[in-house]
From TrEMBL:
Reaction catalysed by this enzyme: a uridine in RNA = a pseudouridine in RNA
One BP annotation, GO: enzyme-directed rRNA pseudouridine synthesis
Family assignment from sequence similarity: Belongs to the pseudouridine synthase RluA family.
Protein's organism: Floricoccus tropicus
Enzyme Commission number(s) of this protein: 5.4.99.-
Protein's name in the database: Pseudouridine synthase
GO MF annotations in UniProt: catalytic activity, acting on RNA; pseudouridine synthase activity; RNA binding
Classification of source organism: Bacteria, Bacillati, Bacillota, Bacilli, Lactobacillales
CDD domains with a match to the protein in the record: PseudoU_synth_RluA_like
Pfam families: PseudoU_synth_2
Known role: Responsible for synthesis of pseudouridine from uracil.
Length: 288
């Protein structure tokens, strides 16, 4: 693999070492390969890692096949891939409800398989959406960018905004649910608010109260399994169509990842995508 990256203005006058470690968040193992094999060039010239790069410099990064473990995946159908954004390193797609993000066994076909079929090589999951949830989801197109994006996700540099329809009306317009979430010991399919669980923070904004339901916007600071569903159920406002945590039925789970935004780790380009959902909008009309 070989990648050519032009240094943006924000990164000028920084050493190669700091560029890779602090700006591009390249993991130590990959930095070691690049250093020992002399597989990084600036303007097609070998460089010392203490040399500085300037705006407009072209950095070439090379990886050998043995630098990454080989990945095998069964290809799905590329026709199922609804692309919201794509470049050399990342692809953001609009996941339909009812489709798994990734397979749990070799015989399953999920969105990951379809995206890999579109790319004609394995894609890599950066974050997940529940099977019942639709919307914007980010995949890495190579194993160079994957750990960088994973670190960004961990550092809350990838921002996700969801729209949801919940049962009942709220007596507040903006609030935060800061309650740890863990697995329900009595039901493996469920998560619960638990003092022994992992930190989970959901910021909630009420968009509109209808007669019996409310349209809300949720922004995640963490990414626990079923986080929005568990937190709103804990607040006594379970999601419409949630067969696990709620009671009010609908054609689908009323949870949709409508927006995904972040600064591209290599170019500082602002990436912001919005994912439409006809099924969410149609079901919202029924309840509103």
């Amino acid at each position: 693999m070989e990648y050519k990256i032009t240094i943006p203005q924000k990164f000028q006058n920084i050493t190669i070492n700091n560029l890779l470690e602090e700006k591009w968040l390249v993991p130590r193992k990959q930095r070691h390969f690049l250093r020992t094999k002399k597989n990084i060039l600036v303007n097609n010239q070998n460089v010392n890692w203490n040399d500085k790069v300037m705006e407009g410099d072209v950095v070439t990064i090379k990886f050998d096949l043995e630098d990454f473990p080989q990945t095998k995946i069964t290809y799905g159908q590329k026709e199922f891939v609804d692309i919201l954004f794509e470049d050399e390193h990342i692809i953001i797609v609009n996941k339909p409800e009812g489709m798994k993000t990734h397979p749990n066994n070799p015989n399953e076909i999920a969105l990951l398989n379809h995206v890999s079929a579109y790319l004609n090589h394995p894609a890599y999951v950066v974050h997940r959406l529940d099977q019942e949830t639709s919307g914007a989801i980010l995949f890495a197109k190579n194993q160079f960018i994957l750990p960088i994006l994973s670190q960004m996700l961990e550092k809350r540099q990838i921002h996700r905004t969801y729209q949801a329809l919940s049962q009942g009306n709220f007596n507040k317009t903006i609030f935060t649910v800061n309650k740890p979430i863990g697995r329900d010991r009595h039901d493996k399919k469920k998560q619960i608010v638990s003092s022994s669980g992992k930190k989970a923070i959901t910021n909630v904004k009420i968009i509109k109260n209808f007669s019996q339901v409310s349209l809300v916007e949720c922004k995640l600071e963490t990414g626990r399994t079923h986080q929005i569903r568990v937190h709103l159920a804990y607040e006594s406002h379970p999601l419409i169509g949630d067969k696990v945590y709620g009671k009010l039925k609908a054609n689908r789970l009323m949870l949709h990842a409508k927006e995904l935004s972040f600064n591209h780790p290599l170019t500082e380009q602002k990436i912001q995508v919005f994912a439409p959902s006809k099924t969410f909008d149609d079901t919202l009309q029924i309840f509103s």
